[in-house]
Specification:
Elements lengths: L1 E7 L4 H10 L6 E7 L8 E3 L2 E3 L4 E10 L4 H12 L7 E7 L13 H4 L1
Helix pairs in contact: 1-2
Length: 113
């Protein structure tokens, strides 16, 4: 089992979700987050004061998948999120030690979906 965290541009969510649905991956959690990468945020000028330390709005997409769905999920996120410009985001993959379904008490691979 793997746990995928992707940081993407907010305007790419529909494309990412559509690409995941094509791979039959429907269980997804999305959160609003703030952050910055190599672009170091955006500079804003207000009354001649330049504020350079702005954080950018991003979305954090979290998905737990069984091993056979890892690369289809990563490829789908990449297809949906890529614009070719700086700030497209990152994908992180972690080993998922255990998963428990609260309603049934089911555990392991079957509890993911």
């Amino acid at each position: 089992m793997k746990y995928i965290i992707a940081i993407i541009q907010p305007d790419r969510l529909d494309e990412v979700m559509a690409a995941l649905e094509e791979e039959d991956i429907n269980l997804i959690t999305v959160s609003d987050v703030m952050g910055r990468g190599r672009q170091k945020g955006v500079a804003e000028v207000y009354r001649s004061y330049v504020d350079r330390n702005r954080l950018l709005r991003k979305l954090k997409v979290e998905i737990a998948v069984n091993d056979e769905f890892l690369w289809p999920a990563v490829d789908a996120i990449t297809r949906g999120a890529r614009t070719g410009h700086i700030g497209d985001g990152k994908i992180f993959v972690f080993d998922l030690e255990e998963c428990l379904r609260i309603r049934t008490g089911e555990s392991g691979c079957g509890a993911i979906g």
